Amino acid sequence: MNLRLKNNILKGFLQKLLRPRNHLWIHAMTYSGFSLLFVYLMHHLPVNQLFIDPFSEAIKSHDIMDVAFSKFRDKRKVSFDSRIVIINSGITDRAKLAKTIDILNSRKAAAIGIDLILDTLYNTQEDSMLQQAISKTNNIVFGYIFYEKKGSHNSFKALGSNDFFIQDKTEAYVNLGTNDGFSVRAFEPVHHVGGSENFSFGLQLSTLYDTTALPFIHKRHIEKEWINFKRVQPGYSSMAYPINHDGVVHYNMIHIDQLLNDTLQYDSTYFANKIVLIGFCGETEQALSMKDRYFTPLNEEYTGRSIPDMHGVTIHANIISMILDRDFICEVSHFRIYLYSFLLYLFNYFVYRRMERHNFFRSMPFIRLIQILEFFILLMICVLLLLSFSIKLGFVFIVTTVILSYELFELYEHKFKPYVQRKLDAFLN
């Protein structure tokens, strides 16, 4: 079969495919592809999008997790996690910290996490006491902070405890996946710091408790994990709106002074084979401190929030619970989101074609009603997937598809469709 015959066969096939009765589908597919490309570029190009789509731009600072966890997750049905105990260090006192570590070591704690930065050495008796207590403890993990320059993948240790205290003990980074320094929804299980693989604070402690945790994380091979927040900030001062107005308790939390003043109250089984996190949760039990405190999706006031709802050490506790339970959130791939968006454009094209037969002022209210219904249906689907199946669908991109679909339909019909039709007619003739 020569080349000319092949070309004739191909042209005949295309002419049959592009015959007039198929033009509606061709325009629908072209419109969907054009609209998808437009929204994709709008989301990824560094331009001010506020004048194009103010609604989608406004909700970019929020996430579907905020709505789902804040308003639809029933915290009263979440189980108490007895594997983790949080000790509120209050204002760091190194003598108290040394005594606490000795107690935990004698009570056979499975792992001890120090979410405090002991960067300064004062050469005092308290420093020596703390150093001796640490030296006798094998299953202890210290937190540190790494720094990564913007636009660079080179990270280095920026702030950590003094070598006098750490000695040869394990360190893990306490950095959380926050873009603004205030809101936390994700974390990096593994990060390369100084050219070597380092583990997050939560993952390192989970590995000491469950040796299969690390292979499982490596198998998932996900750079940034969404935190499946379920357990709220414990403590008397947090039993109020918008933190924990139901007064539920998901973790045992005790103040360091309470432990040292009444050690006998906590028998030998209280800390045995448990992960104990020592970190700041307020100067006293009654203090509602804003230090090391973040907004999370569990905040009961997810819009216009004024009070951060969770201390960093409790966020690490949620991460540990998630890892130990293998209760991870699976995110829908970008390819699938683009596919769903394309199909939604395709569906709306035929809806708008049907509606445009009517007078504009008669059809426009129905078109907006359809968009509102689609918005709430998609919202319900996203919330249901997240709460029931731990599947996270990219809500912002999908909802932008709904919001801009009619405007892009008008643009295509009046500006691009005549050009596409001329090309089709020219090819067929």
What does this structure look like?
The protein is α/β, with parallel strands linked by helices. The protein folds into 2 domains: 26-60 and 331-428, no CATH class; 75-328, no CATH class. Helix content is 47%, strand content 13%. The chain contains 14 helices and 15 strands. The strands form 5 sheets. Strands 1, 2, 3, 4, 5, 10 and 11 form a 7-stranded mixed β-sheet that branches. Helix 4 (64-72) crosses helix 13 (360-389), helix 5 packs parallel to helix 6 and helix 12 packs across helix 14. The radius of gyration is 28 Å and the shape is elongated. The model has no long low-confidence stretch (mean pLDDT 89).
Name the helicity range: 40-55%
The beta-strand count equals 15
Q: Please compute the radius of gyration using only Cα atoms.
A: 28 Å
Question: How many discrete domains?
Answer: 2
Distance between the termini: 25 Å
Q: What is the mean pLDDT?
A: 89
Question: What is the helix/strand order?
Answer: HHHHEHEHEEHEEEEHHEEHEEEHEHHEH
The number of distinct helices, counting runs of at least 4 residues, comes to 14
The outline comes out as: elongated
SSE class = alpha/beta
Bin the strand percentage: 5-15%
Low-confidence stretches: none
Mind summarizing the main beta sheet? 7 strands, mixed
